[in-house]
Amino acid sequence: MKAEISVIMSVYNGEEYLGETIDSIIAQTFREWELIVINDCSTDKTAEILEKYALMDERIKVHINEVNLRLPTSLNKAVSLAQGKYIARMDADDICFADRLEKQYNFMESNPDISLSSCRFLTLKNGVYSSGGCGGRCDNEAIRAMLLVTNPILHPGVIARAEVMKELGYDTSLTCTEDLELWTRFAKNNYKMQIQPEYLMIYRLHDKQITGTTLKRQHEEVVKIEKQYYQTFLEEMSDTQWGFYINGIYFKEDMDIDKFCEFYKWIKAVNKKEKSFSAVDYAAFEILAEYKRCQITKKELIKAMMCFNPLFLAKELYCRKKRAYDDGRRCIEAAKQIGLTQTSGTAEFPIFSKVNE
User: Fold this and answer.
1) Sequence spans of domains, the chain
2) What's the whole-model pTM score?
3) Regarding the domain with residue range 5-212, which homologous superfamily does it belong to in the CATH classification?
4) What pLDDT, in 10s, does the model give residues 162-183?
């Protein structure tokens, strides 16, 4: 049976969650897949777990690196080995809903102009499940603009056309932001991206993740990537602007409403001249929404909102609330199907736990 989807995964010392992750792939309602796993010199029981699964299911193909190549190089190796029409990403600690591949395959088949898509997801941390985000736009223009200020695409939730992934590949000079860099090159090469607004996986949050241990390196790599993105579509920022961008916009560690308003006015003015993006206002609005979730004062929020065109603001507030409600409804329905019950939160931002816990 020929694989239509090649699921690619790189694992280093992933014994804790690896079995649960592979079980979720084996349980897929879509059967025409292959799982290509790169064991990047693990020293725990990862090799034994992979050997067991490979003997159990011939669709699981394990490759062992002789030296530790790290994630981007290992993923490129997996991409080169992929036989499927599509390549789907998976991390060794996340969980697919049983219909993930089926729904993503049907979505890509129905949208031949889309080269890459991701999905909505639940997060899991310390036994608590919650929505990975509600209310955001899913279209290509919104994603292109959002890449100016954040990474809107869940890497392990991605499915992409194999020929495009093989053409572009991951930048092996990066250590923890290879996904952001790849998405920006999708945009630079006019490959369309979209987020499928269905909840199709569980994204595990824990202390061992790269994103929790390499913040300084992330800062440096994000600036490098975003400088190239801004130079391609807009123009270079000053060092002072970059300082606020990385701390106040991208990572939101040092929020400052006055500097936010200055940044928004600058990017809007430059885009008006370059005409590269149709959703810059939306991207800035999303950052402000994050500021609100970080509990800035009401006075600061009103001050920032006054920077926006009133008509845009009224329309976006209405549309975002409707999208959040629709996403929340889909999230609750998806959670029920995997045995979760809502324990707190709201209709737009629900929080769940397992029924038997």
Assistant:
1) 5-212, 234-308
2) 0.95
3) Spore Coat Polysaccharide Biosynthesis Protein SpsA; Chain A (3.90.550.10)
4) 999 999 999 999 999 999 999 9
